[in-house]
Structures are given as C-alpha cells and as structure tokens.
Amino acid sequence: MKRVLAACLICLLVSPLGAQNSPQTVVDNLPKGGPNLPPLSGVTGDRSPVVNYGLGLLNDLKPSLVSVSPFETKNGVRIHDLIRAGNLYLSLQDALALALENNLDLELQRFGVRIAATDTLRAKGGGLLRGVLFTANEAPAGIGGPGEPLVNSAATGATPQTSIPTNFNDSQLIAEAQDNLATIGTIPLANGPAIPQFDPSLTAQFQAQHATTPETNTVVTGTPALAANNVTGNFGYTQGFSPGTQVTAAFDNTRSTSNSVRNLIDPYYSSSLGVTVTQPLLRGFGIELNRRFIRIGQNTEKLADDVFRYQVSITVAGVIRLYTDLVSLNEDLRVKQQTLTSAQRLAEDNSNKVDQGTLAPVELTRAQAQVASARQDLVNSQGFVLQQELILKNVLTRDLSSDPLVHDARIVPTDPINVAPVPTQTPLELEQIALQFRPDYLAAVKQLTNTQIQLEGSRNAVKPELDVVANALNSGLAGAASALYSGAPPVPGSVLGYGGNYGSSLAQILRRDYPTYSIGLNLTLPLRNRQAEADLARDQLQLRQNQVRNKQLENQVRVQVEDALISIQRTKAAYEAATETRKLQEQSLEIEQERFNVGLSTNFLVIQYQSYVAQARSAEVAALGAYSKARTQLDSVMGIILRANNIALDEAYKGEVPRPSVINPAAIK
Fold first, then answer.
1. Considering the entire predicted model, what is its pTM?
2. What is the maximum alpha-carbon separation in the chain?
3. Which residues face 90 on adjacent strands?
4. How many angstroms separate the CA atoms of 139 and 314, rounded?
5. Domain span holding position 360
6. Average pLDDT of 206-210?
7. CA atoms within 13 A on the CB side of 445
8. Distances (CA, A) of 383 to 160, 164, 333, 387
9. Segments in 23-91 forming alpha helices (H)
10. Total structural domains in the chain?
C-alpha cells in the first residue's frame, strides 16, 4: 500500500521552474544491468598517480626504478580563469569541474585505486594480500547542514526579535564525516593453505674453504692430518605453479684438493644436476584454490573503483548542496537588504511626520528599533555567506592558504536554483535501479564474493596433507691422476673421469652416467585438526555476518529511495506553501501601508507586517533550497548523480575536465 501511495505522489510532483514538462529524465536513459565501466587502474592523466614497477631481473637490481608520481599541491588553472576583479564567478558546472580537478578527497582515493592494483600484482607473485581501505569522506555540512539554520530568521512577532550568533568556531560546519563501505568486519578470514611462489627465483652460492682435520687413523686418508682445499659453486631455481606444484632444480659443483694418499684423482671435480617436484594431492591442490588471492585481488580492483565512484558521487552531491546553500544564502542576504531598506524608509517617513507634528515620537523610536533589528539580521546573513564561501572554496581547491588570489576572491554564483524533473518510474523500479547503480551496494556485493573465494582456502585446510615427491639427479666426478696416490694406477678406462677435468664431470651428467631417481608419498594426518576446523567454522560464521550486512544495506537502499521520494513531496509542498505565504504577506503589507498612509493603521502594525514579509521571503528561499537538495538526494541515493550531472568517471580519475569554463557576461554586470 505504501509503494502504491508513493507512486501516486511521484506523479503529482512538479518542478517550480517548469522542468517537469521534459519528456525524459536521466533514469530513462540508464544502461540495463548497471554501470559497465572499464577499470580505472589503466587510466592515466596529469592528476592521477602513475606507478612504474620496473619489473624484471635487471630492474630488481635497481629498486629506484620502482617509482610513484609525486602529489600535485597546486590548484589547476581553471579557478584563476574564473576570477574577475576579485570575484570568482562560479556556475554549478564549473564548481563540479573544480572539485573533480582539485578536491583532495578525490586525490586520496586515486591512490587507493593504484594500491588495489599493487595487491593484485603481489598475489600474482604468490604473496598474501595486504588489503585496501574502503573509507570515503563526505563533504562538509556547511551552513544549512544538519543542525544548522539555512537562513537567519528575521524579526517576527509584535516585538522585533533577532538572532545573535554565539558560536564562533563551529567545527561541525567544516568537519568531514567518514563513510566506511567495508562489510566484512575488522577481523580477517584465515589465509588457508600456503600459496606457491609463482615468481621464479634463482639462488647462487660461492664458497672457498681450507680445512685441516686430524685423523684418528691413517687407513682412510693415509695421513695423520688431512688438509683439504674446497671451492664450491652452487646454483638453484625454484618456482611454484597454480596446481600447487613446486619445482626445485639444483646445480652443484665442487673442486677439491687434499693431501690424502688414498685418492685416485686429485684435484677432482664433483658436480650434480637434480630436479625435485612436489605435488600436493589433498591440501593445497587445485588451480582455483591456489589462484584465490589473484581472483580476490582482481575483484578488489573493481571494488576500489566502486569506492572511488562512491567518493566522486558524495563529493559531487556535497558540492551541489554547498552551492545550493550559497545561492540560498545570497538570496536571503538580498531579502535582508530589502527588509533593511523598507525599515529605513519607514523610519524616514516617521521622522518627517514627527517633525511635522502629525506622529508621536514613540513611533519613530519603534521604527528605529526595527531598523537596528533589520541591520543585525543583515550582518548575520553577511557572515553566513562568508562562512559558506570559505567552506566551498576549501572543497574546490588543493591549497587555499597559499593562493591569496583565490583565498580573497568573493564567490558570485551565476546559476539559480533549478529542480530537475522527477522520474516517473514506480518506487519499486527506482529501488531496483539503485541496487544496480549504487557504488556502495556494488562494493558490498564484491566483498561478499571475496569472502566466498577466501572460504575455499579454509575448507581445503581441513584436508590431510598428502604430497607426491619425485626426484631425478645426475652426478659426475672427474679429475687428474693424483701425484700422492700410493697404490697401483687403475687400468685405463676402468674408472670414469680418471685423468679428466671439469668438462668430463659435466659430460657424465649429460650422459646420465650416474643417475638417481626417487618417487614417494608424504602424508601428514592430524588426529585432531581443531585449528583448521575452528578457522573454517569461524569463516563460515563471518560469511553469514557478511550476508546479513548486505541484506541490511539492501534494505537501507530501498528505504533511502522511498524516503527521498517522500522528502521531495514534502519539500515541494513546503515550497509552494512558502511561495503563497510570501505573496499574501506582501499583499497584507501593501494594504496595511495604505491604511497607515491615510491614518487608519498604526506604526506598530506596519512594523509587524514588515517582519512577516521578511520572514516569508526568507522561508521561501529556504524552502526552494530544501526542495532542490531533496531532488539531488534522490539522484544520490539511486547512484546516478554522476550521470545526472554529465560527469565521466575517467575524467574524475584523471582529474582533467575537458570542457572549458565560460563566464556569463550578464553575471559580471
């Protein structure tokens, strides 16, 4: 029933500027199935970070080749192009372009996209993931945010009253709230079985040694003290593969000389070349299993893109809100100036009548009190405008304090408040669109996918450890005839390598003269595998928690869409009522002024109606701003605010907006 009622309310919504006659809205042109965007990690620009990894064997010897482009602290040139004679003439599109180019929250998230790409690269080498942050910063509330009055209430009632600000350092106006898009909780899941090291590695060892060893008998070496000189040169190669296979190759070489009289050859060369292959059959077996961190890393890159899109969306929504509030504050400032002018005109008329003796002096005092009250309201409004300009400039710049031209410039908004037409789809259809386009919800879905992938490792860790180990080794031994050998020399050809050299040893390896082969099974069977079982149970429980959080977020998205629709209806009705009230109060003031001019009314009643008109005008300004912000909120909670404002995500990531800024000449005049 509520959905049907909300659908009826949508059909009644109209824009105060006549935009509701547009046949289509941005919702009508959305792609089916949600956004299909290319990954941001490959996009580069002047503002987006550039990472040079310097991969390769030679580059590993030069760590300086791995570099990240520096952070740009200067403002872009666009903001200076918009300044004329100390005024910053700012349209809403220019404000959004400045935010995309200069906002530091976006700059922070650009590095987050690159950090996610490094996790994928790390996983492809066989490493564990270091993780990324899923936080985003909201734009400041500004004047008109929650808990803050948008306009300065004018003097109302029979006795003029005015507001005097007493809080001169309200941090809530400039503080940025932080949104955390993480749904997986703060406690990570178990890592599961070890991942093979996919990046191959070479090892080398060189050693020279002299050793003198006392002998307990002379039978083995023929000498009471064995003196030996050994030179060793060993090389190794290790690499892991997706099925869990671990391959290790070793090439060992030794040259040895000694004073033993029992050795046939001296010096001799001993070499061997062997390969060992270890293949898990249960725990640690499987291509998908051992590539799980790569899959999580690739999914996290997409997740980081969603976080960046969320940051862009809330920044754009914040800039639109701050800009709308600034326009409203400027309109309210004009209302306060009109109120002061009217009060001064009445005081001047009363002064003339007092001088003529046709009005009591007390009426002049009342009119002067009204002037003072209106002047105080004007001062308050001027302060609110200055505060809002400062907050908005801080959002649109990288460094406000070091750029005096921008810091001292007064913002002149060149766009009025416009309210876009409301989509004609039913609330249920709008909710489905929100679930397809909301970046925070899409990020939650990807986090759930990551949890399910990582749970594969926890399940596999419960299995016993059974590995097949195969080894193949070829050896070689050769050397010159020993001059110290005390026995008879061997028959030529009866001893392989006799009288040879290092090349003879290598030839024996290639001919496989001395082969060694082995194959076997290694079994590790935990009798009580409580650690792995506890990890699996806990990870499954955390998966259920993740599913609950996703359902909560889905419900929240649906509620936010319907709440935005209700807010549009409420603020629209409030704006229409405020407009009608302002018209009636102005008519009442005109009538009362005419009655006062002919002596049928009192000065007190004229002052009272002036206060009513001032209040009605301020209320109309605030109502229009609230109506506009409610419409913007609908685009925001549906996840389509970027499309609604013609913002491309790659432009936001590059920090480069190609469209030029053009100042409206009428605004300067």
1. 0.86
2. 152
3. 413
4. 7
5. 39-158+290-412+435-456+535-563+603-668
6. 95
7. 11
8. 21, 11, 10, 6
9. 57-60, 78-81
10. 2
